[in-house]
Hints:
single chain, 196 residues, DNA binding, transcription regulation, Tet_transcr_reg_TetR-rel_C_sf, transcription
Amino acid sequence: MVRPREFDEEKALHAAMQIFWEKGYEATSLSDLTATMGIQRPSIYSAFGDKKGLFEAALRMYTKSHAASVRASLHKKASVKAAFRAFFEHLVEEEYREEGSNKGCFCINTMVELSPHDAKFEILTREHQMYLAVIFQETLERGIQSGELDSGTDAKGLAHSLVIALIGLTVMMKCRPERNFMDQAVYSMLSSNGLY
């Protein structure tokens, strides 16, 4: 008979996600994971297989939550332009709120660290990028249908451009440029795409 797990798997996975997000895959040791998750190695192996299986589960947890958060953020405002402006301005605001807190996006960090050498993580991070593009495209199409955006707007192409901008901004903020530099970049990106 299989013994029931003696720990909250979702809580432990969330703790693992936080340490992986902060340190990256390679720099996170099993000792870091056991200390952060509050469980022993055999429990990690039993629940997740190995470190890479745990990392994948943590990344999937993050991408699901992140996509839901992006969708909710873009639906908060009736105006599509205001929604994108608030989304990108909040992105910068959050990154500069706490000194020394530049974790960035867990998925983008994974794309940079692991995707070049690991096909599974290349696929997982690309899937998330494409899902964000769909969310952006749906939001842009809402703006076209309401008449807020020009009827000739290429919603799909613009959505892809916005995902690339999101990735670029997030990576750039990891090295903490002057805040004004980032604010100006967001303004220019949005205004040149008719979203400001």
